[in-house]
Amino acid sequence: MQPDTLAMDAAGYLSIAGIRVADLARRYGTPLYVFDLETLDRRLAAYRVPGLPVPVDVYYAGKAFLCTAMAGFLADRGVGLDAVSGGELFTALAGGLDAARIVFHGNVKTPLEITQAVEAGVGAVVVDSLDELGPLAQEARRQGRTVPVLVRVTPGIEAHTHAFIRTGQYDSKFGFALTGGLAEAAVQAVLAEPALRLIGLHSHIGSQILDLEPFVANVEVLMGFSRHLARRYGWWPQVLDVGGGLGVRYQPEDDPPPTAAVLEAMARAAVTGTPAGREPPRLAVEPGRSIVAEAGVTIYRIGAMKTVPGGRRYWAVDGGMGDNIRPALYQARYQALVDGRRGPPEETVTLAGRYCESGDILIQEARLPAAAVGDLVVVLGTGAYNYAMASNYNRVPRPAVVTVRNGTSRVWVEREGYSDLLRLDRPWEPW
Questions:
Q1: Looking at the whole model, is its pTM more than 0.85?
Q2: Residue 289 labeled ligand binder
């Protein structure tokens, strides 16, 4: 639920990677996103499991958090990328990622994005609908290329997670359902197109999953479908891309299975499901949250405190739903610490944001030590889907992103200023 290097001294002052939180706030301002590189490296290392029965390739899910420097970090570590838009693809290439290590997704790929992906030479395009097959094949022929393709299927597995981040059920907006012949029709269409080369299947069942069984069931379903395709069409997958979804410990009761156990169980299922005379497909995974969530925190400064009729105690901070929409959107739950306040929890507070919405609440009923206006609050586990979903609501500039390691800090994304809010605006002209 927090960076591995986060520490609190005897006086209650917090540090990350040996740097005082207060020093980071003074130097870079608040709100401030902070990522611990040591934690990022350790979470990535958890996906490198030796001795698995089949190879497992890692494609980080850029939607969780991506910027140019993050793309460079991934390239330096030899990790691929799951990109879901032309903007993510553009950022990845600008950061130095090899296009061949990028899997390109999207349930609606614009003509520009299809051209962009084919020109870049991405490792695979994940086909999400029959309507994109024609434009993709046409663009491949125009460029004289054969495009590697994965067909995305929905396996009918309902992971126990929030409805908004559940993607494996048959009525999902993503992919082709295995019922009714939809997925098989998509496979047939790809196999019939010379400009496309079907290399495997893709499935992603959801996010923040805390059980092992859905991941294994996903592989078993994909292997069963693959056996059917082998019997009927003589086709066998080189790769099964099983998506991401492994949860993290946002709250003490959250208990995700170890990464190695998940990979081992899925790899065994791939081997078990392979018929005689066939090679087991290699697996691909697309972790996002489990890589970056715990590596990131957000530092806020308390700007106001009040107790309202009925007894609710509010601490209002200088950020909120503009830099973390997840509590309002998903009812996501976070934990927080107060810098310089080591004592036991004395207050039950609602940590509220500064935005003009009653729903701008970061944490409901947090138990925290007594604090004062001007104190710093550190919200834990904000590395995933915070900066990625940030907005300029209320015309508030977005925070900076800073990374820390071994007592040093670097800016990965500059703090926006008011001039940035006007950069794309055009002045009024009477008409």
A1: yes
A2: yes
